[in-house]
Amino acid sequence: MDAKEIIHCAVQIERSLTDRSYGNILTLLGDLYKSQVTTEQLETTDIVKVLYRLLRSCSDDSVKQTAKGLLSKWKRQYSKETHGVKSREAGDGGVSKQEDSNFEVEHAASCSFSSVRSKCVQLLLSALCPEPPDQHKAADLATDIEKHVHELHTSSQVKYKACVRSRVANLRNPKHKHLRQGLLSGSLSPEAFSQMSAEEMAGAELRQLREEYSSRGVIERQLPHGVEGTQTHKIRCKNCGGSDCRVTQVSRGALFLPAWVKQSGPDDDSMTFVTCSGCGQQWYHSGWVCL
């Protein structure tokens, strides 16, 4: 059983615990008991913490006994591989409170980030809102999406969490149904989805609005092109030293003005700037050098 299957199993155990599906939990625990779970997998996945939560909240005795037996098996394996000595066999396949505490402390540091990853898989799975026929497929998708996001932001947990939050929010947005439909249908791969920007995740309607606002803003705010202006030889260019310049006056409403220009009087409805014919340098009146 690889790490992906173990994470999937942990997610299914927690979902079954919420639904009180103890038969499913027993089946999952049996699969784990039969599988060879390595020490590295115990450290890099959240399965140990999930089983401890199961022991604390489950009311079914058979489930608790099976979980204790599995933890005892992993406890002995972990102690043998990491410390080179065999741990004491627990009576009746159980684990004592002291063993529980020691095992949980040993895994606390190594499992802290894996706990976050497991929670992120659950959030993604919840955001996909799978119907009964698609539940297993959705669980695989959530695990794959989280894996690709983790690969993108391995060095930064802050960026990792922000990226997951962005995917979850867009999947939950009723206007972005195309994302969920694309993932479940297979037309959108988990890897591509994990790399999409906010603009790419937006629906066709929102993208069209953004394009309209952007183009309208550029038209309204850019400096006018092809304006000849009035030729003058009374101003010297600070850049090239030439005195062949053109003075242009335009409406202030058509300009994206810097802060220092906006501080001028409200009665001044026009803006005057100078363009050097020699080098193309442009500047406002505060930079004029009059001859």
How would you characterize this protein structure?
The protein is 60% helix and 7% strand. With 291 residues, the chain is an alpha+beta fold. It has a 4-stranded antiparallel beta sheet, with no helix packed on it. Helix 1 packs antiparallel against helix 2 (22-34) and helix 2 (22-34) runs parallel beside helix 5 (61-83). The N and C termini lie far apart (84 Å).
Q: What is the fold's blueprint, element by element?
A:
Layout: H1 3-18, H2 22-34, H3 39-44, H4 47-57, H5 61-83, H6 97-128, H7 135-152, H8 157-172, H9 177-185, H10 190-195, H11 198-201, H12 204-221, E1 230-232, E2 245-251, H13 259-262, E3 270-276, E4 282-284
Antiparallel strand pairs: 1-2, 2-3, 3-4
Pfam families: Med26, TFIIS_M
Domain TFIIS central: 116-229
GO cellular component, one term: nucleus
- The counted number of beta strands is 4
**Oligomeric category:** single chain
Q: For the CA atoms, what is the radius of gyration?
A: 32 Å
Q: What structural category arises from helix and sheet content?
A: alpha+beta
Cross-sheet strand order for the largest sheet: 1-2-3-4
Mean pLDDT: 76
Return residue spans where pLDDT drops below 50 for at least 5 consecutive residues: 85-94, 105-111
Fraction in beta strands: 5-15%
- Which term fits the overall shape? elongated
What is the string of helix and strand elements? Answer: HHHHHHHHHHHHEEHEE
Termini Cα gap: 84 Å
The main pleated sheet reads as: 4 strands, antiparallel
Keywords: Nucleus
Pfam families: Med26 (PF08711), TFIIS_M (PF07500)
GO biological process, one term: DNA-templated transcription
InterPro entries: TF_IIS-typ, TFIIS/LEDGF_dom_sf, TFIIS_cen_dom, TFIIS_cen_dom_sf, TFIIS_N
